[in-house]
């Protein structure tokens, strides 16, 4: 029995639950982003005559949408489901009663979230290829990047969901964090056109770093920042997020 | 606020008074966290307007409409954001919240033991959703005027139209919620809602869609609401806008009728 | 005494409720006069709650006649409900409101002016001994407190008729007694109480008169004492023998007492003089592992009428 076995057992629990709900998620996590591509990339793109930096608007927006979809799937999976497993269904408490460590419970939760992120991004990437918008052999690296973005937003969100008792705060989180990030972190238009203060907010958000990296690997252009800088910044969100989430889980489950 | 207006309404017929008592309950349930959600809800369409209207608008420049009118992209998108937020606000309050109260909290079981009847509950909930929606619309129209995307006079005229759109979607949401079986159905509704948001002539003129899609889009309620509000805010009104008003009125009546009947059946078992 | 006092507050003839193929209430006749405490006693699924929902005018009858306060529930629902107090089986208090707000907002549904509502809420919180929790949310209250709040809520419109569906189910003994004591006070104030229960001690404590329901029908009707005299003996001897041997021992008891019931875990020996019957058991050389002589209860009435126990 390897050290990962308990984590895999937790992952298995999540997968069994997913067997019942995957149909709905195909719609919300794959079809809707695809429709967004059509509405913005194709529809609005037809009005963006000169493209951006010489790249057609459709090609430019797709990597941004992939990163932003990865973030949204990761956030969805780390909000209501996590709150529910503490407050309503209390799954985590029954898991903690089994010989599982906190890191197994948290790891299983994260593994499931990342699996969903990966599947969604992979489907999206295929569609992007179909539209002929991938211009670099590096494009498959998008799949690794979305995992990093997913973990960077999921872990702090899990920590947040584990700290609250009412889901009103989750609606709030979506409005003050998720929606502004999707709208202003360089997905729909370059952050360079934002006023200074807002641009710095965009730089702080993990999503912008993911968008910039994804755009670099699908378009084959140099990112706005150094690749190492981007990666380290996202890794820092993952590390701090893990510590926070682990501490919250410990307090709720053992303390 | 609400409680100041209410005493004067007591003289109205009993049914109206009972609907108002349902609204009072919602006013009493307003607590800190919910307030924050309410206020942040106002920001959502403004953020969309800034991101798509201004941010993407800078890439697009001015837009020549099929009527020949030339407008900034932000002025084109703003009324659509107003219509969409009227839709999403009304639907959220009348479907998600209504369903929760009906199925899980069993709130209505308690109310039904009183003289209040199902249809009066529905009206009260709708009235409540509309109070909130009207406040959002007024705020958003204020932002539009401040950003010089429409004139103050047109904004005043657009306000009742936005409220009408809210009523239509609220009534529709109520009728829909009586058909919902589980939370999974809401995912489906949310998806349908987002699809409408993307393709109701919101971000580009419906005339630029392929013909079949255009026909499809033009029968949807969000398109009619966008068309009405855009006509008013850009000052390009025609007979079509009269049709829009009729359409939204009809949807309101239909939604309320279906909701009233079905709620009675669902709750009086 | 006014003329309306002569009318039954609840008048049902051949009352029936069907859900698809399932008949929940199968033609019952009930009259409840003003001022009475009336009970529906029966096991889960006997049709008590369905009957209560029809009386509360939130469930249209499938057949028969039903008049509440002299009116037709289908036509005059709001007018009837304005004069009823309903305490449902599961507390459906409003989790988003405080204890006191639960009463004041509820009062508004009856069109009670705000000032009166506040005053009445405070009186009722005193009555159900929750005055010190008035600003608290509902969630942290204990089961007994929630129940008392639900009862207070049912009284907010000063109803003539109060319907209580399983008022103490799920409460601990102390909480039950507190609820009973409050209900008893209401009864003394002349409020008509109609309750359902599957606890015979509750029915015996609170009801002037009751009907025993089984499978949607009324199996017997009368005061608790009445029913016990009619369908049981004065006393009962409960005998326990080693497991799996009840049936053998039951054979050896024939001829003793008036009647014998064999249950999976014990044998009930019905006799007016329990001690005398027990002496005879011992004379036959039988040695039960445990013995209890007690007075007959409604449980025994139910067992006799249906061949089943109430709570299993």
Describe the SSE topology.
The complex is a heterotrimer of chains A (255), B (269) and C (312).
Chain A: H1 5-43, H2 57-78, H3 80-87, H4 91-97, H5 102-130, H6 142-161, H7 168-184, H8 196-204, H9 206-219, H10 227-253
Chain B: H1 2-9, H2 14-28, H3 32-60, E1 62-64, E2 70-72, H4 73-105, H5 107-112, H6 118-146, H7 152-177, H8 183-199, H9 211-218, H10 221-234, H11 239-267
Antiparallel strand pairs in B: 1-2
Chain C: E1 8-19, E2 22-33, E3 37-41, H1 48-55, E4 63-68, H2 73-81, E5 84-87, H3 99-109, H4 114-127, H5 143-154, E6 161-165, H6 173-188, E7 192-197, H7 200-206, E8 209-214, E9 217-222, H8 224-231, E10 235-240, H9 246-252, E11 259-262, E12 267-271, H10 274-283, E13 290-295, H11 298-306
Overview of the molecule:
- The complex is a heterotrimer of chains A (about 260), B (about 270) and C (about 300).
- Chain A has one domain (about 5-255).
- In chain A, about 75% of the residues lie in helices and about 0% in strands.
- Chain A contains 10 helices and no strands.
- Chain B has 11 helices and 2 strands, in the order αααββαααααααα.
- Chain B has helices spanning about 1-10, 15-30, 30-60, 75-105, 105-110, 120-145, 150-175, 185-200, 210-220, 220-235, 240-265; strands at about 60-65, 70.
- Chain B has a two-stranded antiparallel ribbon.
- A 6-stranded mixed sheet of chain C has the order 5-6-7-3-8-9, sandwiched between helices.
- In chain C, β6, α6 and β7 form a beta-alpha-beta unit.
- In chain C, α3 (about 100-110) packs across α4 (about 115-125), α5 (about 145-155) runs parallel beside α6 (about 175-190) and α8 (about 225-230) packs across α11.
- Chain C is globular and about 75 Å long.
- Residues about 1-5 of chain C have low confidence and may be disordered.
């Amino acid at each position: 029995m390897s050290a990962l076995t308990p984590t895999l057992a937790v992952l298995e629990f999540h997968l069994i639950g997913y067997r019942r709900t995957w149909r709905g998620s195909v719609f919300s996590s794959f079809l809707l982003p695809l429709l967004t591509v059509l509405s913005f990339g194709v529809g609005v793109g037809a009005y963006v005559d000169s493209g951006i930096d010489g790249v057609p608007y459709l090609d430019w927006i797709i990597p941004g949408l992939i990163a932003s979809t990865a973030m949204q799937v990761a956030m969805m999976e780390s909000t209501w489901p996590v709150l529910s497993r503490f407050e309503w269904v209390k799954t985590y408490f029954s898991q903690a009663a089994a010989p599982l460590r906190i890191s197994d419970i948290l790891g299983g939760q994260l593994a499931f979230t990342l699996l969903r992120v990966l599947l969604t991004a992979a489907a999206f990437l295929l569609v992007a290829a179909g539209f002929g918008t991938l211009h670099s052999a590096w494009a498959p690296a998008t799949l690794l990047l979305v995992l990093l973005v997913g973990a960077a937003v999921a872990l702090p969100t899990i920590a947040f969901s584990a700290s609250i008792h009412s889901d009103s705060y989750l609606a709030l989180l979506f409005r003050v964090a998720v929606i502004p990030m999707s709208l202003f972190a360089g997905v729909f238009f370059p952050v360079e056109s934002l006023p200074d203060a807002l641009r710095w907010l965009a730089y702080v958000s993990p999503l912008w770093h993911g968008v910039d990296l994804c755009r670099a690997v699908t378009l084959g252009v140099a990112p706005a920042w150094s690749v190492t800088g981007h990666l380290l910044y996202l890794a820092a969100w993952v590390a701090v997020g893990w510590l926070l989430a682990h501490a919250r889980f410990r307090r709720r489950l053992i303390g | 606020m609400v409680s100041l207006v209410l005493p004067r309404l007591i003289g109205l017929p009993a049914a109206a008074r009972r609907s108002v008592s349902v609204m009072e309950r919602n006013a009493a349930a307003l607590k800190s966290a919910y307030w924050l959600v309410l206020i942040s809800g106002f920001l959502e369409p403004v953020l969309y307007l800034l991101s798509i209207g201004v941010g993407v608008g800078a890439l697009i420049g001015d837009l020549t409409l099929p009527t020949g009118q030339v407008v900034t992209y932000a002025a084109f998108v703003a009324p659509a954001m107003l219509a969409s937020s009227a839709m999403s606000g009304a639907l959220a309050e009348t479907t998600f919240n209504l369903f929760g109260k009906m199925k899980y909290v069993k709130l209505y079981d308690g109310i039904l033991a009183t003289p209040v009847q199902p249809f009066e509950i529905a009206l009260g909930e709708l009235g409540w959703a509309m109070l909130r929606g009207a406040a959002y619309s007024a705020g958003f129209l204020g932002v539009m005027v401040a950003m010089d995307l429409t004139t103050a006079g047109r904004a005043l005229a657009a306000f009742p139209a936005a409220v009408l759109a809210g009523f239509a979607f609220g009534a529709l949401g109520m009728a829909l919620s009586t058909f919902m079986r589980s939370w999974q159905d809401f995912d489906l509704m949310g998806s349908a809602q987002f699809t409408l948001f993307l393709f109701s002539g919101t971000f580009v003129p419906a005339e630029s869609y392929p013909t079949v899609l255009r026909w499809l889009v033009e029968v949807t309620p969000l398109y009619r609401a966008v068309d009405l509000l855009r006509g008013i805010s850009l000052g390009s009104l025609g007979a079509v806008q009269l049709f829009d008003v009729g359409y939204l009125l009809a949807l309101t009546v239909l939604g309320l009728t279906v909701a009233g009947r079905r709620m009675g059946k669902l709750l009086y078992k | 005494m006014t003329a309306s006092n002569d009318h039954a507050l609840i008048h049902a003839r051949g009352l029936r409720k069907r859900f698809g193929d399932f008949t929940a209430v199968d033609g019952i006749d009930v009259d409840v006069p003003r001022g009475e405490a009336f009970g529906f006693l029966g096991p889960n699924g006997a049709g008590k709650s369905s009957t209560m929902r029809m009386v509360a005018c939130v469930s249209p009858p499938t057949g028969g006649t039903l008049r509440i306060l002299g009116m037709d529930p289908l036509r005059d629902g709001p007018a009837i409900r304005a004069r009823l107090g309903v305490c449902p089986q599961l507390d459906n208090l409003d989790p988003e409101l405080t204890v006191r707000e639960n009463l004041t907002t509820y009062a508004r549904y009856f069109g009670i002016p705000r000032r009166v509502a506040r005053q009445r809420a405070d009186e009722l919180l005193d009555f159900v001994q929750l005055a010190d929790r008035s600003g608290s949310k509902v969630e942290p209250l204990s089961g007994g407190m929630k129940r008392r709040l639900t009862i207070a809520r049912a009284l907010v419109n000063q109803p003539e008729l109060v319907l209580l569906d399983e008022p103490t189910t799920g409460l601990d003994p102390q909480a039950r007694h507190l609820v009973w004591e409050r209900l008893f006070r209401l009864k003394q104030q002349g409020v008509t109480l109609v309750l359902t229960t599957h606890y015979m001690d509750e029915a015996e404590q609170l009801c002037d008169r009751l009907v025993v329901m089984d499978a949607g029908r009324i199996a017997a009707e009368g005061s608790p004492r009445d029913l016990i005299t009619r369908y049981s003996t004065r006393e009962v001897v409960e005998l326990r023998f080693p497991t799996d041997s009840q049936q053998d021992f039951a054979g050896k008891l024939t001829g003793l007492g008036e009647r014998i019931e064999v249950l999976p875990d014990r044998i009930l020996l019905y006799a007016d003089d329990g001690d005398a019957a027990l002496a005879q058991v011992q004379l036959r050389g039988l040695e039960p592992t445990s013995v209890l002589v007690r007075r007959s209860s409604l449980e025994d009435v139910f067992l006799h009428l249906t061949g089943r126990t109430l709570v299993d």
